Amino acid sequence: MFSLSVSANKSAKALNISRPVSNLLRLYSSSAEYDTVVIGGGPGGYVAAIKAAQLGQKTACIEMRSTLGGTCLNVGCIPSKSLLNNSHFYHQAKHDFKSRGIELSDVKLNLDQMLSEKEKSVTGLTKGIEFLFKKNKVDWIKGKGTFVNSNQVDVALNDGKNSSIKAKNFIIATGSVPTEIPGFEIDESQIVTSTGALSLKKVPKKMIVIGAGVIGLELGSVWSRLGAEVTAIEFMPEVGAGMDAEIA
């Protein structure tokens, strides 16, 4: 029978691991307790977190992105509307102004500048949410959470550490991700999601949009206005099938 009878201090000293282990544990994990924790920092999540804090709850929001605002603000509604607006101006200047008595001799597309303006719009709004979090004392935990039980979430932090978060209440506002099509690898270069379609480096000659709903129509319109030949493919019997029937 093997018996280990030396003290913990002597064992640690002999192996020379006491300080590295204790440092590693401090780096690896931490813990905190809240009244309410929101998982997801998008439009549903950040609004709920701010409201909970305003009602007197000690509140945190777990978000794995490097910025708040979720899909809508970072790679959805806001950047899409920016490109829709500016591509409309370009299309008007190139194809419509002359008939209205406005003649421009040399209309050129500066795609890099248009994309830069899109990013400025996004950055301004994401910084605004950060300010509201600080103002209302909402803790932003940067990482990805996994439920351990009904009152605890373990968070893999973006900096490589771990954190254990306990709360009386959790609000799940994680949003969604694009559906992958079997046999087609999304590389965000040739086969792109809506995220990739917001940041193409050049205007493609031809583009096929799978899905003629709001997102597909918005991004298809952007690249069509900028010069691409766009074809939309839709499973439903009409374009914009999820919208009001008369509008569709």
Tell me what you see in this structure.
There is one protein chain. The chain is an alpha/beta fold and 248 residues long. It has two domains: 34-172, FAD/NAD(P)-binding domain (3-Layer(bba) Sandwich), CATH 3.50.50.60; 178-247, FAD/NAD(P)-binding domain (3-Layer(bba) Sandwich), CATH 3.50.50.60. Helix content is 39%, strand content 21%. It contains eight helices and seven strands; from the N terminus they run H-H-E-H-E-H-H-H-E-E-E-H-E-H-E. It has helices at residues 8-15, 18-28, 43-54, 70-75, 77-95, 111-135, 194-197, 214-225; strands at 31-39, 59-63, 139-149, 152-157, 162-172, 206-210, 229-233. Strands 1-2-3-4-5 form a five-stranded mixed β-barrel. The protein is elongated, with a radius of gyration of 25 Å. Mean pLDDT is 88; it is low at 1-27.
